Amino acid sequence: MSSRHRLVPAVLALGTAASMITSAAQALPVQPSQPQPARSAKATAAINAVKNPKVVWRRCAPGLQCGNLVVPLDYADMDKGTITLPVSRRPADQPKRRIGSLFTNPGGPGGASNQTVTFFANSLGRDVRARFDIVGVAPRGMDGEALAECTGDVADAGSASMPLTYPLNPAEVEQVFAQNTMIQKACKEKGAEILSHMSTADVARDMDLARRALGDKKITYHGVSYGSYLGATYAAMYPKNVRALVVDGVLDPVEWATGRGKQGGAVPVTERIGSGHGVAGAFEALLAECERVGTAACPEAGSVRSDWHTIQRILAAGPVDLGQGYALREDDVIGMMTGVLYSHEESALVPSVLHDMAVELTALSTVNRVNAASSPAARKVQATKKATAQQKARGVAREMERLAERAAKSVPAGTVDDDRAVHRGPVLDPTGETTPEPAPDPTEIPSEPAQPPVYGVGFHAVLCGDSVNPSSRAAWVAANDRVREQDGGFGQLWLWSSSLCAGWPVKASGVYRGSFGKPTSAPVLVMTTDHDPATPMSGAVAYRKTLKTSRLVTVKGAWAHSTLDISACSDKIRNSYLLTGKAPAKDVVCKPDHALFTQLG
pLDDT band at 386, cuts 50/70/90? Predict the structure, then answer.
């Protein structure tokens, strides 16, 4: 790999994480396809025997209280001790009319629920804030005393950088394979004890213990993205404890856990859940919508598709030198475009930024054709033109980054960096100037010894523990061809985020993998947009069919990862359900408050 820096977008959470692909070497054993019944029964009996814990609250921010919840490390083996989970809550504005606690989860896996309470309080609105304490319990391993970390060898410190969103060629596949082998070795030899106890089922057990600690007879819950899988798992494990449970931006829980039929042993989880197909479909629908409304509402309607093809063609030839030590790759643009589609508002700007990118990359390609036989004066003029073209292209790339960053704020987990603590390279700063890394002085003696890399593996500890996956790393290489053909780079971006699961050396205890169709004591509210780039509408539809005691609310004509704050219609239905516990009598279709593109003039 060149040492050249790259513009690297934030990487998605379900999130997903950047790909660090596993090696073609021998695969380590993976977890069985079904939980161990005896252990699950023992864990259930054990949690019932646990006394209700107490949470001592303290003021930690304006309007916010913080505390700690002590839970068993292993619900099936109390002798292993306890861990402490941070908890936050925003007390109800009208305590005399308080209904109870509203538990929330922002997604991930890895979103620290205790840190997103204010987001949910603001998004869910005044009526909900008035009647509920908004509560967030940190998922185990993500915050607090027991973190999901693995410590590598000092010798690996210099090779712990892998700035790839997904691999573009066989050499990069092998490069990321080596990275995954290194991380797996670190987790096998020096992985935190918590890694074996981070399944979604254990998080659901923690949440039920928190429900008891806060005095709620039944749970009221709102989970987004991966938080929908936590909600589905809780509903399946504690079907009689549901008062009102909302899942928004919904994963198909069957596909996440095992797949259907014999999928689990052959198809990687991040291909099964269909996120790559979802974002590719959302992107295509956006281009088609721009063309449909015409230039009065979308000025780039006549060129948006050719602009995208131009960008693809130029980047397919290889990374584009943007000057000042930066380069732009196909996977950078795919990652940023995926991130932008998380927000309905930011998605409307996609045609404009694609047009600008196509123009500047075309101009840069033209000036790059330097005639070696030209005179020195001509080459100097050409160099000046190239520097100008590079500067303009960097500006467009920065704008694309900004769109993705703004879109991240529309959902609580948003887009996050890879959950492993690896250096992904610098990005351009907000002023438009670069901050190059100083060249090392070979004569300088280091003042401190090299430190071993520490990998934060929370995303994969949950994903790989929850889901059944192929044992062969070659399965991801084979899947790469399938998703590339079907969904282009969008499919590859999502596919490779699970590659670490082939050979994942940690066996999760207390896993729950179904059934997800057990009737619940109150209907579950399933919510989705029809152009969700991370958890496609197909996941919500599948869960609605799986769980008969559910209702589906679809916001049609919306490009967003969750229905929060985009439709007064869906907001009203959700909040009425949370306040009364009564779901709609039948499935409902809403519209967003604003069309994607607005008529100009």
Answer: confident
